[in-house]
Design goal:
298 residues; alpha+beta; Sortase, Chain: A; 2 domains; eight-stranded mixed sheet; two-stranded antiparallel ribbon; 10 strands; globular; disordered N terminus
């Protein structure tokens, strides 16, 4: 017969086992709530898992490092050292002084707003002539460029800065100067003129909805792009055989005009695509008899 002592030992063992099981169940539940489930790990007694799903392998092998910004162009390093707001250079070879030098051949700056360089020169000293500057809201870096970069410049009476942008009102000027060179600190590029137009900046200056060309910076959708193109072509002084498509980049020049108070003359150019020869468009420009003009200029 089993002695009283042995029965007591067996009863104690059973109680201990039950307590341990209860603690184990309670501990597992808490562990799953506060940490990752332990069932995802292989038991210590089994060999570790050495394979991973194919998708994980592809992600690991196809992940590309972030792009590295290209080195700035050496020819512009001195300008950047003089003024860290320097972002590029604009030159139009087809509009020249009597000695053959281009009227428009200037550095371009970009500040934290669009008023800083209205009355400051490149050295950031007071000057009523101002400086040519890029819209402060558009990115201009070695890795990022807005779909449409707008440059502003005064129409100074002495012919400086953007005074001769007004020459694009003549077809003969356009045919001589349909290519615009605009380099950033990192890239040399050419743009071909696709539209020239006169516009007001207030609703009451026209009898159709106001077109705020200066706010057309990025075309997030094809609808945005079409809105921009429809409006610049509606007002275009000229027609041409130049094609434009969603995904192209543009350069817009804006300056004061004098047909009426607060009028602006605007030139829009498309970036020359890789491998494209812009000279094929030289003789395609013609006057547009159906261009829309602001009501105050009719």
């Amino acid at each position: 017969m089993e002695t009283f002592l042995n029965k007591l030992k067996r009863t104690a063992a059973a109680i201990t086992a039950a307590v341990i099981l209860g603690c184990a169940l309670t501990s597992c539940g808490a562990h799953e709530i506060e940490e990752s489930p332990i069932t995802t790990e292989a038991p210590q007694t089994e060999p570790p898992i050495t394979t991973v799903p194919d998708t994980t392998t592809e992600a690991a092998t196809t992940t590309e490092p972030p792009p590295v910004e290209p080195d700035p162009l050496e020819k512009y390093l001195d300008y950047y050292e003089q003024n860290n707001d320097f972002v590029g250079w604009i030159r139009i070879d087809g509009i020249t002084h009597s000695n053959g030098d281009p009227w428009i051949d200037y550095p371009v700056v970009q500040a934290e707003d669009n008023s800083y360089y209205l009355d400051k020169n490149f050295e950031q000293k007071k000057s009523a002539k101002g400086t040519i500057y890029a819209d402060y809201k558009v990115p201009i870096t070695g890795l990022d460029m807005a779909d449409n970069v707008t440059l502003y410049g005064h129409s100074n009476k002495d012919g400086s800065f953007f005074r001769h942008v007004l020459d694009y009102k003549k077809l003969s000027t356009l045919k001589d100067a349909y290519i615009i060179n605009f380099d950033t600190r990192w890239e040399e590029a050419q743009y071909i003129v696709v539209s020239c137009f006169l516009i007001g900046i207030y609703e009451n200056q026209d009898d159709i909805p106001l077109f705020e060309y200066f706010k057309c910076r990025n075309f997030d959708t094809e609808e945005d792009y079409n809105y921009f193109m429809d409006n610049i072509m509606l007002r275009n002084y000229y027609t041409s055989g130049i094609d434009c498509e969603y995904g192209d980049q543009f350069l817009t020049l804006s300056t004061c005009s004098y047909e009426f108070s607060d009028s602006r003359f605007v030139v829009v150019a498309r970036k020359v695509r890789e491998g494209e020869d812009p000279t094929v468009y030289e003789d395609t420009y013609e006057k547009n008899p159906d261009k829309h003009m602001p009501k105050k200029a009719r």
